[in-house]
Amino acid sequence: MEVKSAAMRSPEGFGMYPDCPTERGRKHLRELIEIADKSGVLFICALPKVRGFKPYCEGDEEICKLLEEARERGVLLKAISLHFDPSKGAVVLENPDLDVYI
Q1: Per-residue pLDDT averaged across 80-94, rounded?
Q2: In this structure, what is the dihedral angle of CA atoms 64, 67, 72, 73, given to the nearest 10 degrees?
Q3: Cα dihedral sign for 22, 100, 50, 90?
Q4: Where are the beta strands (DSSP E) in the chain?
């Protein structure tokens, strides 16, 4: 299981990853694709009130292609919404099962 931080918000309200090219992220996805049926990626959308998760293809086009391949090969792709609420002084799990759009 690989965990990625999706701390970018799209104008439409989606949590997004990556915000820039990431060779390390590509390497991780390639490794997960090799063991597809035994692997997964969890995207933590560290933002309140997100509608779901989408990859930010302008940040890294190859990541988008690798995520498509990962989904096709059976890698589990999950997303949650988790953020700090200063009024409560606590981390809030807002949605434990966000929709993932690849």
Answers
A1: 95
A2: 140
A3: negative
A4: 2-5, 8-9, 15-17, 40-45, 53-55, 76-85, 90-98
Going 32 to 37 to 98 to 63, the CA torsion angle's sign is positive
**Domain made up of 2-98: CATH architecture:** 3-Layer(aba) Sandwich (3.40)
Backbone phi and psi for residue 30, each to the nearest 5 degrees, phi listed first: -60, -40
**Cβ atoms within 10 A of the Cβ of 28, count?**
18
Res 36: pLDDT: 87
Q: Measuring CA to CA, which residue among 30, 5, 34, 2 is closest to residue 17?
A: 5
Predicted TM-score (pTM) of the model is: 0.92
Token readout for 101 is 């759009």
Torsional class of 90: left (φ above 0), alpha (ψ -120 to 50), beta (otherwise)? beta
Gap between the Cα atoms of 39 and 7, Å rounded:
22
